[in-house]
Amino acid sequence: MATTGTDDVIYMFAMSLDGFIAREDGTFDWLDNFPADDDYDFSSFMASLSGMVMGRSTYEATRRHDEWAYGQYPCLVATSRPLENLPENAEAMAGTPAEMLANLRARGATGRIWLFGGGDLARQFMDAGLLDTIEIGTIPVILGSGIPAFGGIQADRWLDLAFAKPLANGAVHAQYRVRR
């Protein structure tokens, strides 16, 4: 069985059975029927983090909520466009995946980094050899179209299964290690 390191970069997300993380317009209302419950153990995942890299669209979606739930972590929003009124511990940055990780490490993120949202961002980290773990909650819904979990054309990527388990709500929680 593959093991997860304490300083991994981990792309953890939910996707539809047909591989989409959001609808074409960026909404993910379909997840309302499948909230991360105790069976998924999202709270343990959050407690294991030391920092976050977030795609611009994901950042904008999270900011639609009243509360910024990520102030305890150094957070980097990957964007080439300026952002105003960033919340506590958040910075905006355009750069390579290596530069983004260096920024977070310099700001105290010495452990696991969550790559939160964005198939294109995940592809960039994979291309750079900096994505270690992929953790997926596969939701039993077929959307037909949307934003793919892994953006852009890319080479075959092979993964090693760490675990897979069915959840009481019908979703499947799986974790993979990216082969080097």
Outline the structure in words.
The chain has 180 residues and is an alpha/beta fold. The protein has a single domain, classed as Dihydrofolate Reductase, subunit A (3-Layer(aba) Sandwich), CATH 3.40.430. The longest helix has 10 residues. 34% of the residues are buried.
Kindly summarize this structure in a few lines.
The chain has helices at 42-47, 56-63, 97-106, 119-127, and strands at 9-16, 20-22, 49-55, 75-78, 90-93, 112-116, 133-139, 147-148, 159-166, 172-178.
Count of structural domains: 1
| Sheet having the most strands | 8 strands, mixed
What is the topology, as strand order, of the major beta sheet? Answer: 5-4-3-6-1-7-10-9
Number of extended strands: 10
CATH architecture: 3-Layer(aba) Sandwich
Order of helices and strands: EEHEHEEHEHEEEE
Note the gap between the termini.
16 Å
How would you name the CATH homologous superfamily?
Dihydrofolate Reductase, subunit A
Query: How much helical structure, as a percent, in the residues?
Result: 10-25%
Q: What structural class do you assign from the helix and strand content?
A: alpha/beta
In terms of DSSP E residues, the strand content is 25-35%
Could you tell me the CATH topology label. Dihydrofolate Reductase, subunit A
Give Rg in angstroms.
16 Å
Features of this protein?
single chain; 180 residues; alpha/beta; Dihydrofolate Reductase, subunit A; 8-stranded mixed sheet; two-stranded antiparallel sheet; 18% helix; 31% strand; globular
